[in-house]
Amino acid sequence: MKQVSVYTANKKGAMYRLTHALADAGVDIRALVTNDSAEFGTIRMIVDQPDVAIDALTAAGYLCQLTDVIGVVIDDKVGGLDKLLADIDYMNISVDYIYICYDRLENNVIAVNHTDVEIEAILARKGWCIA
């Protein structure tokens, strides 16, 4: 799964300009999470057309990159994420960041993970469905 990461100044209207550039390019945002500091923010997104998104955002003046992340389908009930993290912890792997999104096309809850270790094949062997 490819994630679009965008770095932007924390200024009024910054998110609107970003979403407007994507809308004009016909890109559908499937998941979005923001992290900020005093002056700059990081916006991480899963979109339907990552390459088109990168081109549109770069043309709009944003600094952005594509990152490989792993989407794992989790149960939409109490403990769904806990089960996944228990398996990752058992493997002694550190999660750099994680966020949850809902795949409305497949009707699934997805945990989007970034780690410094390739865990996709390991999780698939343990029975996890990779999105």
Q: What's the layout of helices and strands?
A:
Layout: E1 2-9, H1 14-24, E2 29-36, E3 40-47, H2 50-59, E4 63-68, E5 70-74, H3 80-90, E6 95-103, E7 108-115, H4 120-125
Antiparallel strand pairs: 1-3, 1-4, 2-3, 5-7, 6-7
Describe this structure in words.
With 131 residues, the protein is an alpha+beta fold. It has two domains: 2-68, 2-Layer Sandwich (VC0802-like), CATH 3.30.2130; 70-125, Alpha-Beta Plaits, CATH 3.30.70. The protein has four helices and seven strands; from the N terminus they run βαββαββαββα. The chain has helices at 14-24, 50-59, 80-90, 120-125; strands spanning 2-9, 29-36, 40-47, 63-68, 70-74, 95-103, 108-115. The strands form two sheets. Strands 2-3-1-4 form a four-stranded antiparallel beta sheet, with helices on one face. The N and C termini lie close together (8 Å). The mean pLDDT is 93.
